[in-house]
Write the structure tokens for this entry.
Amino acid sequence: MTAGRLVRRAAFVVFLAAVLTFSLFPLYYALVTSVTPSGDLFRPAIYPDRWTIEHYRGILAGPFLRSILNSLLVGAAVVALTLGVALGAAYALARIRFRGRAAALLGVLAISMFPQIAVLAGMFELVRALGLFGSLGALIFSYLTLTLPFAAWVLATFMRGIPVELEEAAALDGASPLTILVRIFVPILQPALVATGLLVFIAAWNEFLFALTFTLSDESRTVPVAIALLSGASAFELPWGPIMAAAVLVTIPIVLLALVFQRHIVSGLLAGAIKQ
């Protein structure tokens, strides 16, 4: 191995180590803070001298578990509804020729660009008119406005890469468009569906503005709002230990999902870059 190649490999290793440190250190420090006694929190240390699980006990003894359950229910419902509706929309946008299809695609993309604050007032009036205010239904309904355009656009992009011959052969055998979608496209799009579903779940899990606006009680609050309500009179009086313990707890489901579906996620993310 030449000296130049050794230098390039060493530089790559250093760069990779720097990226990993930059990405993972906040999570590591949150974990360390969550197990550090309250009296030692303002003595910065990479590795604490004393450990405690009191912060986790305090968090789990309160209504935080209900908030985690609420987030799981909302996330699962949003993923199911988003993928179900987005599949049909993606099929229409990618496979059915109709006047204004390009404009519809651009419209779907434009909708996803609107900031949440721009639609908050109108969404509030709509949620209140439907009688959903203060319930998990309000969050599920409002989150669809964030996730449906993105999912439809992504799935339509993947669907355009599927050979038309498969669809034509099924149509010659008498398959209906619904049968083609369910029996042919869904199995082929499984990696894309998993990747899109995980991104949709993360968006619903982390959403804060709608959750803060449309919920009032512990029975319907999700984890971002529950963490935000762990506050004190000043920065030095904030319960940093419980806050970090809550942050670690809400990160665990996302990490587990990524580990379980990592093969499908990688396949789904790469599928759109490979011409079928």
Remarks:
- Residues 63-271 form a domain with the MetI-like fold fold (CATH 1.10.3720.10).
